[in-house]
Amino acid sequence: MDTEPSLYTVKAVLILDNDGERLYAKYYDDTYPSVKEQKAFEKNIFSKTHRTDSMKCISIHTCTHTFSGEIALLEGLTVVYKSNIDLFFYVVGSSHENELMLMAVLNCLFDSLSQMLRKNVERRALLENMEGLFLAVDEIVDGGVILESDPQQVVHRVALRGEDVPYSEQTVTQKASFLLQVLQSAKEQIKWSLLR
């Protein structure tokens, strides 16, 4: 077993619903190369962790947990996880990985989503905002390397990236506003070139 320090600390980020079905999964190495193996791992991890009552909340209004998370060793991997209402969040690392680093990723992901979803971290809200989830995970972890652990920074960067909508997906108002900005800029450049 290789115990050399490595930047590649995260093997997977998973979000499952309260039935153990995959809502989001991103694997960063080939520990589970096929979808079949990934689904089997997810089923196993869910069956071992979903009965943890200390993490369950019945409703948003009565929830008083701090969502500190839990740690498990499963199939030779370190798994940190937490649940909220009808979602289960998992961050997976190797068996020798620092649990605090993995927990920092988990907390950053959960706190970022909580801010982006206005504290409504539940299945339906998450499904309606999958683009934000994809962007947030990409800001936190890239190729298994932890990039960010501050949820404020993640939310800020996701908001900036969300503004960069491709021209083909912009509304008529957005396109008109963009064209007006381009015309105004061209007008200013022509004015200054004539004044020289």
Provide a descriptive summary of the structure in words.
The structure is a single chain. This protein is α+β, with helices and mostly antiparallel strands and 196 residues long. The protein has 6 helices and 7 strands; from the N terminus they run ββαβββαααββαα. The chain has helices spanning 35-49, 99-116, 123-128, 130-140, 151-163, 172-195; strands spanning 12-17, 22-27, 70-74, 77-84, 87-94, 141-142, 145-146. A 5-stranded antiparallel β-sheet has the order 2-1-5-4-3. Strands 6-7 form a two-stranded antiparallel sheet. Helix 2 runs antiparallel to helix 4 (130-140).
Characteristics:
single chain; 196 residues; alpha+beta; five-stranded antiparallel sheet; two-stranded antiparallel sheet; 6 helices; 44% helix; 19% strand; elongated; transport; Coatomer_zeta; AP_mu_sigma_su; protein transport; Coatomer subunit zeta
Sheet-strand content, in percent, reads 15-25%
Total beta-strand segments:
7
Q: Using the alpha-carbon principal axes, give the shape.
A: elongated
Q: From N to C, what is the helix and strand string?
A: EEHEEEHHHEEHH
Measured distance between first and last alpha carbons? 70 Å
Biggest β-sheet description:
5 strands, antiparallel
What is the C-alpha radius of gyration, as a whole number of Å?
21 Å
Strand order of the largest sheet: 2-1-5-4-3
- Low-confidence stretches at least 5 residues in length (pLDDT < 50)? 53-67
The tally of helices reads: 6
Mean pLDDT rating: 82
The SS-based structural class is alpha+beta
* Helix proportion range: 40-55%
Main location: cytoplasm
Family: Belongs to the adaptor complexes small subunit family.
InterPro entries: AP_mu_sigma_su, Coatomer_zeta, Longin-like_dom_sf
Membrane topology: Peripheral membrane protein
